[in-house]
Every structure is written in structure tokens, then in C-alpha cells.
Amino acid sequence: MVPTQRHSYLVLALLLFANALVLNTAFAQMQPKDANEILKPVRDNFNQIKDYTANAHINVNVDFVRIPDKDATVYFKQPDKFRFKAEGFAMLPKRGVNATVMQLLQGNYTAIYAGSANVNNTQTDIVKVLPTDANDDVILSTFWIDAKHQIQRVETTTRNNGSYNLDFNYATNPFNLPQQIVINFDVEKMNIPLGLSMDLDSFGKKKDDKKSTRGVVTVTYANYKVNTGLSDSVFK
Amino acid sequence: MTLLSAIQLELYKIFSRPRTYIAFAVIVVLVCAIQFGVYAEGQTMLDMATQNLKDTFDFSGNLLNGYFTSFMILNTLWVHIPFLVALVTGDLLSGEAASGTLRLLLTRSISRTEWVVAKFIAALLYSIVLVLLLGVLSLVIGKMLFGFGDLIVIRNTINILPESDVLWRFYGAFAFGLLAMCVVAALSFFFSALSDNSIGPIVGTMGVVIAFTVFSTLDVSIFHLMKPFLFTTYMGDWKTFFDFQPDYGKIFRSAFVLLAHVIALFLFTLLWFRRKDILT
Predict the structure, then answer these.
(1) Which residues of chain A fall short of a pLDDT of 50?
(2) Is the confidence at residue B108, as pLDDT, over 70?
């Protein structure tokens, strides 16, 4: 073979190899990711947390409730113990704040990869989680998880309690614990009997016909203390 | 006789009559009954009122406290306190006529004007003492039974007022309620000047208060024109102190209207009584 011809074959072979490499990579990217592989590090990270205590600043924004911002102390212990204490009266949504989201991932479910999206200026993978337990109140939960295995957003639809969304913000807290959670949820409007409210000013006035409204609660955390060996007596 | 000694004399007459102590006894019984009733069943009432919220929220802290019971007691102000005020103040002038002491009293070295002013001031002082008793008793017993805490005010919205931000609201509300009861006292005092027996002014005052309250409260279009002219429309504005952000403009306007009613009713009473022929 003439040297120039050898060179030509070599270049062609190199070109074909490079092409194959590029095509292989592109093809690999087009394949759907394994949803369980995306959820696993999130779940493993959470399982490292045996308990935590944190200061929480609570802002409640619900149509028919006026309450000032409150400071509370929140306590959590695996698997599902949650308590919060404040000076005076405080309220927190039942869903979203007390690790109900992570409890969903501890149960039995089917996870489906549903693409990727940019959320909170972060590229995330979308995973849809369907509990397999027919008695579970959750019908469907959608997770947006970033490359650091942090949950950026959750949207959940339930059978009996409407739907709720959680948006997470992170700082440098241990075990990917959030700096802030914004919970957006359905809440039923209250129809307060006159005998309880004694509000004669509203007697005979037409009331709003809407049965439910949306509420937003923002909880900002600080001073996490993780795995300190919290006693069960804290939750009584 | 000076005006001051006339006032002292009228106060002595008011507080030496058994009828006066009926009002105080009713206040004590009512406040205690409501407080103990709430002590027994209050948590159930609160749970009922907040049930929908409890489906969505976890609560921390106790809303059943002395401020809540005191607020409930204040809500009853519109119905029983006006009667207890009119019970005494409606008798101040007509009672003298009915007992035949009017002529004798007016022969003393005090003008009719001073005499009416003395009685009117005594009537207002009695109303003040009554409302103060209500306020002090409800807050003190509430504190003893329940302690204090954040206040839940359930109206069209649910307002949760922090404990540190509540007491001044009660001071304002009781002061406003006091002014409202002064209007009732002035009205019954005016009716008392028109009558020679006590039943008429007392029943008449209650009739007016109840009727005006109905007209003020019902959201019926034919009553809308009347509402701005009825003092009962403004009497309930003590509740504005318990709004999350009180509307001070509304409070001052209502207070001004009530004060104007007190002054106007007193002046009508004075004008009438100065010209009245004493025939009894």
C-alpha cells in the first residue's frame, strides 16, 4: 500500500470512530433516566438524618386568616415524629413541613422519569411518584430533583385534601436540609355560625360562595442541629 | 348648695338604692357564668370554630385564655348592659316626680340647670362604674381561670392577635363601650325628663335600643337610609379595635357621633326640664 493511501485509511478510521463516539453519547442522552436511581440518593441522604431541631420563622398567608409572623422551634425524629413549639399560638400546614414528602419515598411506589426542566434557576430531573397502596391519600406526586440530589419542587395531588405544592430553597445546611419551604395548598373556607362569631355586623349579609381557597405558608429555617439524639418525650 | 355637693348627693342617692345593686349583681353573675361556661365547654366551641383549619394545619399553643373569654363577654355588651344602665338612669328624674320630691328639691338653692347637670353627671358616673366593673371582672377572672395568651377573634376572618398586642385593644374597646353606654344613659335620662313614672323611660329606652339595633344590623335596603342616623350603628364599632389593623378613622368618627348624641340628648333634656311645669 502506498503511504498516502495508508494515511487516508487512518484518517477515515479515526473519523468513523469519533462519529461513533459522538453518536453513542447523543444516543445515551436520549435514553430515559432511571427514576429510582434519581430518587435513591435523595432517600439515602434523608435516611442519614435520625433527628433534627431547627428554628423556624413562619409566615401564613391565607385568605380568611390574619396571623402575624411567628418564630417556632421544630423537632423531627425518624421515621415520622414531628412537633413544633412557639411562644403563644402558631400554625403550620399538616402536609409538606413535617417530612411527609420524604415519607412518601419510604413507602411503596412506582417512579417514572418525566424529563427535565429548569426550576428556581436550576436544571432538574422530573420524577413522577405513584404510591401503590390503594389506601394512600396521595394519588400522584411529582418531584423536581437537581444534580445535587436536592428536591427543588414537589407537586402533590391527594384524594381527600386537595393539592399542594412545595418549593424549596437551599443554603449550606447539613444533609441538604432546606433553608426555606414555600407551601402552596388548598384550604376550605370557613363558615362560622353566628352563635360562635357573635358578629352581628355580618348578619343578613351575602357571604362569599367559594368553598375553598389557596393558602401560602413560608417557613424559613435556621440553626439546624442534626442527629443530637432527641428524646421521644419532646414529641408528647 | 354647690354643683359638686349636688353631684355627691345624687351619687349617694343612686348607690343607696337596692335597684342599683341589681345591675352590679347581674354583671357579676353573668361574667362568672360565662367564664365558667367557657371553662367547661370553651375548648369544644373553639374546636368547632377552627375545625376546617385543623384539617389543614397543626396548631401549637392554646387559644382558650382570659382574653378570649373577655372578648366573648364584650360581645354581650350590646344586649344586657344598656338595660342595666337604663334601669337606674331612667329613674333619675321621673323617680323624683313619681315620689313627689321634685317640687321640694327644686325649691333648694340650686338652679334647675345645676340640678339637671348634677343628676346627669351622676348618671354618667354610674354607667362608668358599671362598665369598669364589667371590664375588670372579666379580665381578672379570665386571667385567674385561663391565664392570658394570643387572642383569636372570629368574625368574617379569623384574626390571631399576639398576647403583647391585646391589652391596649381591650382598654380602647371598653372605653368605646363606655361612651356607647353613656349614650344609652343620656337617652334614658331624656325620657326620664319627659315622664312622671320610671317604667316608661326604662322600657322606652330598651325599646329604642332594640329597634335601632335591628335596623342597624339587618342588611335590608329600606334600612340603609336610616342607618347613618341611628346611634346603634356606631355602638358596635368597639370591635374595630380587634381588627388586625384597626381603622382609627372609623373609630374616631363613631366616637364623635356617639359623643354628639350624648351632648345633644343632654341639651334636649336640659331645655325641656327648664321649661317644664312641675305639676306633681
Answers:
(1) 197
(2) yes
Contacts of B57 in chain A (CB under 8 A): 91-94
Q: Give the containing element (helix H, strand E) for B159.
A: strand B158-161
Q: State the Cα–Cα distance between residues A124 and A144, nearest whole angstrom.
A: 6
The alpha carbon dihedral of B62, B67, B70, B72 has a sign of negative
pLDDT tens digit sequence for B218-239 = 888 888 888 899 999 999 899 9
What are B47's three cell numbers? 374546636
3-state secondary structure labels for all residues of A16-73:
HHHHHHHHHHHHHHHCCCCHHHHHHHHHHHHHCCCEEEEEEEEEEEECCEECCCEEEE
A234 touches chain B (CB under 8 A): no
Tell me if B53 and A187 make a contact (CB, 8 A cut-off): yes
Scanning A18-57 for CB atoms below 8 A from B yields none
Classify residue A121 by its DSSP letter. Answer: T
Read off the pLDDT of residues A178-231 as tens digits, 9 standing for 90 and up: 999 999 988 776 555 555 545 555 555 555 555 667 889 999 999 999 999 989
A164 touches chain B (CB under 8 A): no
Q: Are strands A151-158 and A138-146 parallel, antiparallel or unpaired?
A: antiparallel
The complex scores an ipTM of 0.76
Q: Of B155, B162, B244, which is closest to A88 when you measure between CB atoms?
A: B162
Backbone phi and psi for residue A133, each to the nearest 5 degrees, phi listed first: -75, 120
Distance separating alpha carbons of residues A87 and B271, to the nearest angstrom: 58
Find the chain B residues whose C-beta atoms sit closer than 8 A to any C-beta of A. Answer: 45, 48-49, 52-53, 55-63, 72, 75-76, 78, 149-150, 152, 154-160, 162-163, 213, 217-220, 236, 239, 244
Instruction: Give the separation between CA A179 and CA A171, rounded to whole angstroms.
Output: 6
Residue boundaries of the structural domains of chain B? 3-275
The label of the residue with cell 409538606 reads: A96
Q: Is A232 exposed, middle or buried (0-12, 13-18, 19+ CB in 10 A)?
A: exposed
Residue B185: pLDDT band with limits 50, 70, 90: very high
